Amino acid sequence: MEKKFIQAIQSFAHPLNDLRDLDVLLKGINNKKFVLLGESSHGTSEFYHLRTELSKKLILEKGYTFLAVEGDWPSCQKVNEYIKGWDLKSNHARDVLQAFSRWPTWMWANEEMVEFIEWLKAYNQRQPLERKVGFYGIDVYSLWESLDEIVNYLEETNSPNVEAARKTIACFEPFNRQPEKYGVSAAFYSDGCQDEVIKLLTDISLKRNIYLDNEESGLNLEVNALITANAESYYRTMITDDKESWNIRDRHMVETLNRIMMFFGNQAKGIIWEHNTHVGDARATDMADEGIVNVGQLLREQEGDENLYIIGFGTHRGSVIAADQWGKNFKQMMTPPAQAGSWEDLMHRANAKNKILLFNNENRHVFNYPIGHRAIGVVYNPLYEHLGNYVPSKMSERYDAFIYINNTNALHPLTGQRDRNRVPAENQQ
Fold first, then answer.
1. Stated pTM of the model
2. Is there a domain that residue 42 lies in?
3. Which of 3, 55, 243, 301 measures 20 to 30 Å from 252, CA to CA?
4. How many angstroms separate the CA atoms of 224 and 216, rounded?
5. At which of 268, 292, 319 does a domain end?
6. Which residues neighbour 319 within 8 Å (Cβ) at sequence distance 6 or greater?
């Protein structure tokens, strides 16, 4: 089987020598509603660089209208306001990226993102309002930050919903913004705030039309209310059921994408940046056996293959930014050569060069056998990666294309970042 895989890779792979070689992906992408760009780690420079360059092409040549990333909505909203010219205080992308204070900050507060954010700002300055590209975070963790955003906005606008928001935030106050503390209380002692967050989300959703303006206040308010409801469910569930809390998180991501699409209308097209474990269809992995879903699967089921294009990323060796324990400081680590017989190993053995592999009707049957596919999380120990960092995957069913970089380098976190808020260790990939 290994020989068959290697021969097929050699036959079907396209070289990736410079950025012009990314154009081979554009024909398959065409004008699909969503393009999902993965990564096999959150700490690899080349993945960010290539996603940036491919995103630029999609914006310039295909008219894509927003980016959605695996980040907190409130922090990403600061980026959105900056690139759209609504932030009159920040002088540079570096200032804006200080908003990313939740561990692991390096995912978005890094040098690689600085250049892209400045590019987006310059691009938007040349566009009318309706064509400005947006930047949104679709993760679920920002319960307290989203509540703060809701209360502040409703107070500023003298909204009739402000009392419901105050009541909701008062319910969470005893837990001192500690997700684990709230989760234990809600899961085991029925001392939670589920009724309050559902009422708040319902009230805001019913009155969404009164919050419309040119700076997306209505969308911002509605998504923060959605986060409040889904984060409460996530933190309550994570104490007793890791798998279901994962599902809550990925369903929330898709629900947020749907709210963004609804806000901008049918003409919108989105580029999504997340880890391979979120974008690569879970049905093509052993996640399916455990009842776990993800964004790639849910969007394929919702939109159909004709409206979705999923690109996975991987490497054979190099260096990476990660932490050796949850919540600890990041450091640069070596990424050892891929495990023998894994997908990354066979890509290397086919030829030790960067390449793009497109999965299509001609070759899909060749690559639809399970093979170990490396996934590196924000917590990583290279010495023990063989124990849990390889996900059995049918590659041609998991992705529509795969970008392989033979030797990669660590991401460049911004200096001076400080992790003030940490999410629980469960389900962060």
1. 0.94
2. yes
3. 55
4. 12
5. 268
6. 332, 333, 334, 335, 408, 409, 410
